[in-house]
Amino acid sequence: MMVKAVCDAIEHLIDPGSYLLPGYLAQDEIRQNIPEEQPLAPWPLNEKLTRFMDRFRATATMVSTTGRWMLLPVVDHAFYQTTSSWRLEPDSLKFSLKPKLPYSKEMCRRQGRLLRYILRQTYSRDMVLQVLGFQRHVKQRCISLEVELVDLIVVAMQTVFEESDDNTGDTADQTHLMWQHISSQVIFIALYQFGNFSQMVELIYSKLCSLKQDGDICRGREHLMWCLLQFISGSIQKNSFADFAPVDKLIHLLYPENEPLPLPDMSKPSSIWHFSAMCILMHINRKAQSLAQTDSSQGGGFNLEANQQWVIPVALQKQNQFLLKCLQNKNASSQDYQTALLCNACNTTTDYNPSFTLLVENVYGESGSAIQLPGSNCVAFNKTAPLKMQLLDSLTAHTKMSMLHSITSKITKLAQTKSICALSPALVETYSRLMVYTEIESLGIKGLVTQVFPKICESRSWGILNTLLEIINYRMHHIQPAFRIQLLNTLHNQTSMQLPMHNQLLFGVESTALRLIMGLDNFDIKPQLVRSFSDQKQIVSQKSEELNRVLVLTLARSIHITGSESISGSWCIDILEAIMAATPHRWPQQTLKCFPHSVQEYFQRQTVGCVNKKLLKSNIEKEYVKWNALLIASTQDSSSGLDETDALAYFSLPTTPPYFICLLWKVFFEGKTPSPLAYKVLDGVNANQLSDQVRTFSDFLVYEFSVGDGSSEHVKICANVLRDMVWKYNIVFIDRLILCLALRSSETSDVQVANFIIQYLLIKPDDFRNRVRSFVQEVESTDHWNQSDWYSKHMAFHQKYPEMYYFEGLLKHCSGGDQVNSTAENPSSNHQYLPSYFSNITLRFLPVLDIVIHRCLESTTTKSLETCLDVIGMLYKFHDQPITYLFNTLHYYEYNLRERPSLKKKLVSTIVGAVTEKKPADWALSHDFMKYVKYSGKDPLPFTPRDWRFNEFPNASAYALHVTCVEILALPLPGDQVGQALIDVVLKMHPVVSRDDIFSWMNSVALILTALPEIFWKPLHRRLFSTITCDTLKNSVPSDSSYPYHILSYSKQQLAYTDLPCTRLLALSHIVWYHMSIGQLSLVSQFLKEEMRPLIETELQLLYVFHLIGPYFHRFRAERTRCLMDVASVLYDMLLNVSNCTKEICFVDEISDFLYHVKYMHIGTALNEKVEEVVGKLQPTLKKRLQFITQASSATAGRQHQQLIYQSSNPPT
């Protein structure tokens, strides 16, 4: 009787008709108190409770993303905008699903596939931590991470191809690079104690033992040993002896041969892999001997774990003998890999230093011998050939760290002693190559940014500072966003202080800052700039208007491409206000039209006036009348009463208007010869003042070219004078001048004149064209990491086209110039040129050319741009991010280029053609697209393998996504038509799309669509708009119907060929929205509110919308609360409309369960007034079910409400 009474009471509580408690709270209470492995209830209640709990399968489906367990991200910086979607529980590797609902088995299972995929991608360490919710500085062991990493290692071993003497090509290279990455992951996880190294080795041993009967477990053993050696060599001194016992056991398992293995060819890099196991044993035995000696000196008796554990396997006996012989010889040859082997086998801090010393001395150079660098009075130590990448790849992480430590010590020592002899080219190139190794990041890029760079600035060693700037500009391929901002802050702080009279240094600092700003990733800009503002870092230049303008352009590009126009908010305005406070400026209308609305509106509210060029001209004329007697060589008139001393004093004052270069223009325009005073004044002008002079000169030039008598003769004279000032007199530098011309003009007419001047400087004279053509021809390969003769090519170019930073041309051609300096044959001898290892005018001009092309795309005429691409487009061969630049350009200017298909084609073919000039046809774009741009070649593989350490992209998936988007954006078709075609690939089940792989196809289509402009994915919303009114959803529901999973759930139907078009569209929409940034997803709420809401009249339509938007409430709550409230409000409006239009609602329980979920998990009491208003107008049954929606009517409901609100208010960080 008691059991029956309890059962009756529970049945009454969960009976929907009793209206005692929301079913949603009841099911959660049941799941909280009954473990999953136990039955729901004793047998008298089991059937009813099971039926009751199964009702919430509909709610679970509503809040689940279709196929979520099959989706994969692209591992790049954009991922960090959607981390909550990919978060896994670190202990179980399951999705964080709250509250407990009857989710599908796939949703509840372990997501090891996702974590292994991320671990396999290069440059994925930060993403691994984000997915698991870890932070670097918090030590937290994750056994699941260990398991997945071990699985990745074992699979990698099984996929290693059998080696042969001929296997030295791409296959061997890619295999080594894969293991290089795995080694980096092992070091990172073990070093930061996210995993236990000893336990990982034990797990590898166990897995290999289990595979022993199924196949050859020795395949890939050399690579595994190489991977383990990387960590052991650096940790053997710090860790306990017992930590490495499993390694010895593993070695004996993998080397069972009864005969010694033959010695490898020491002239090949692969020889190092074969010696890895022997190197490990030498480290371990040396550790054991050290412990034994220590223990013996203390009176103990250390036991070497005797038996057979530390005995060297028979297979490695020859290697052991070879190593011992080499160590006794101590005369290692640097021509093969014997030196690297000895460094790997012996710690660099032991007595076996000769090998390591030989290695580093090969790049230091000899103190008594020097070589010439570009510029006068500039010499460096005499080593020019850097260490090869194959050799550096053959060194252990510990050896590379020791080498980095030695090099940085050498650099800081030279900086402190103010050595007049610069670093050797070999050392600089080797140092830059060591930066690519992520496993030694603390001494690599992080050490450079946080330690070396600030120390060099503090010691005011300008030569080494210029060297570091060139490394950052021309050799760093992957600079993390935080380091990029920190470098920018350091550079701005340096320019805020008074730099020395070094034009070369100031140009280097500004050029580096320009590249750092333009290189900011679209998804990095907001978090990094907001963090920088809060940390009070100086990201806005206080002196350079051009840098701040480029920052505005970069900001606008980021807002546009990330789709964050609707959420730009105050952070964007704060940055713009800081920029305008430092350097007030205005933009031309054609540029403003391309800005996002928030940026556009901000600048339209500003009242900055444009430069009054007539007044500028008048002021310059007055100054010229005042000083021309002293500036013109043949003039003897001194009636003004001013002399040379007055002129030097006047023009050196900071308050003097920056007109001097304009005055020189007047001298040359009149055909006069300048006096020596002209050189003396310019030579005494501060570098920052010189930048102001160039800005004023660019404004003056625009006016001079646009006025006059209007004849072609006037323009010709102006052009010739300008050419001479750039190339003959070295008064202004072409990159600085063109940057000012491209950015400063604010009126449409001025923009046209500025574009004309730019076109003239780049195309008409042959000065710059010859330099571009010569450099492109001389440097055939851009793979600098594979070159050993860069120094000779660098010097040959500078000897052919020397760069003059100190107006040497003016001094040479002014009257009496030989009397200014005592060394007339070398007029620059008074200035100490800074060492230059990589830079030249063509490379420095590339970021300026990027900006020039963008300004041309904003205008209505394109002929000049096409001509420019024809003449100097080949320079893009040396661009550090050509595909990224194309993607950003085509994306940002998509509207401007819609009606210009030939220009898109020209732009892509020129840049890609330059990049792939000496590379395989499939290096950048697909073969089909290359045929479209009239490229002829054989059918290639999808993409040629490459070393991602020296690529603009972190891995193959990021690269494939960007090049695919470039191809799509360059098509001569409307964006919506292309987007519709992409959607149809999966919605119409293209023949190549297997149903088994449908989720992978949908994932790929979603990644592409969300990376493209809005016009490409808008067809998805239009398809939803038309589908919501289809007959399937507009039909009424029979009263006895079961829940329509066949319409609202795709996961099961697709394999059974029973899926409906609306169901397939629902799945694709889920996956596309899953990959969207929050800015893009915010437009979804607008779509529901403005377009979908008026159409919802039937119950199925309402349920379809619930299933459509349900999975994204958690993202709205975490990232965009306003959208969360908007969507919830719209759903209640739809519910009311359906209640009014439908005679009887059948799925009352499922609808009310979902609304209770939204309330308790997401919105709380925020919409109570709205909800009360709607609920009061609903059908009686639905009204009864929702009577608790605005208040808890029982103690149980109240307690559960508080518990769920607490869970929802504490989302994962």
UniProtKB/TrEMBL annotation:
InterPro entries per the UniProt record, alphabetical: Mediator_Med23
The entry's keywords: Nucleus, Transcription, Transcription regulation
Intracellular or extracellular location(s): Nucleus
Pfam families registered for this protein in UniProt: Med23
Family listed: Belongs to the Mediator complex subunit 23 family.
Protein name (database record): Mediator of RNA polymerase II transcription subunit 23
Source species of the chain: Clavelina lepadiformis (Light-bulb sea squirt)
